Amino acid sequence: MSDKKKKLAVFCSGRGSNFRTLFYAIIERELSAEIVLCLSNRAECGAMDFARNYGIETLHLSESLFKSSGEFSSAMLHALQDRQIDLILLAGYLRKVPDEVVAAFPEKIVNIHPALLPQFGGVGMYGMRVHEAVLQSGQTRSGATVHFVNEEYDKGRIILQKHVPVLKGDTPETLARRVLECEHRIYPDALEILLDEHP
Predict the structure, then answer these.
(1) Annotated catalytic sites, by residue?
(2) Is the C or the N end of the chain the one with fewer CB within 10 Å?
């Protein structure tokens, strides 16, 4: 692995539990990477607070701040290129990454999804909706998937996947907690795989 640390940007919209997990895993596993930017569509959220507390640069970027989607895409792309970002990690980012950004970072944008893709993915499948759909379908297992981001929702190549059981009497909330624990285990593993493959 190269001595030069990969520069990571984490995109978040909420509490940032996966962001925190990745941050601590990089330190504990002594990975050759550093989170240098937390980008969010929300000016205030748990992830942004965490980043500020640990001296990580924060950037609020929302389409509502721009006159057009093209200006928004351009601003995001320039922000990433100016900081020489090597890898983008989506951690509860509730917006579609603009196609122009995806094209500029082929197989360098990674997402974690709270289900076993290709099932229960796609437009509108996020958060508690995913777990509700899993339970309604009668599945006996669910899990988490780390995958590359392409121009289609949840269709990029899978990097790592792990399943958890769906238990009798599960509610969307209890299943969500079990899946989140799974996410916290496999996202750092997936990052380590990527860093090993692309030193």
Answers:
(1) 113
(2) C
